[in-house]
Amino acid sequence: MTRWGFHSKIEFILVIIAFSVNGPLALWVSGPILGLFQIERDTTSPWIFWPLRIIVMTPTYQLLLVVVGGILGQHHYFWPRFMKRLRWIGLWPRIE
Q: Long-range contacts for 36-44 (Cβ within 8 Å, ≥24 apart)?
């Protein structure tokens, strides 16, 4: 377990739970976000709705993963990975 930075099986289980909860939660949250812009599944073309849903859901998933991980006490696992993704897309400066 120490290969991935876990000190116990409980930590590993909590990370797995965070991933399990976060997928449906991000999907659930992305709907109202699109609703704020009046982009609804019934009134918008699928060619527009689904790409926008994916675009909104991707950062929502990343943010919620840090939040859910923090709630489960696994902030130390998710935060470095979140920052790595921000650096990868150029939204956070690299410290070298």
A: none
What is the sign, positive or negative, of the torsion defined by CA atoms of 16, 18, 21, 25? negative
Q: Which of 73, 39, 43, 76 is nearest to 57 (CA)?
A: 39
Amino acid in position 24: P
Tens digit of pLDDT for each residue in 11-37?
899 999 999 999 999 999 998 999 999
Query: How far is it, in rounded angstroms, from Cα 77 to Cα 93?
Result: 20
Task: Name the pTM for this structure.
Answer: 0.79
Taking the C-alpha atoms of residue 81 and residue 75, their distance in angstroms, rounded to an integer, is 10
Amino acid (1-letter code) at residue 48: I
Could you tell me the sign of the dihedral formed by the alpha carbons of 14, 67, 70, 90, in that order? Answer: positive
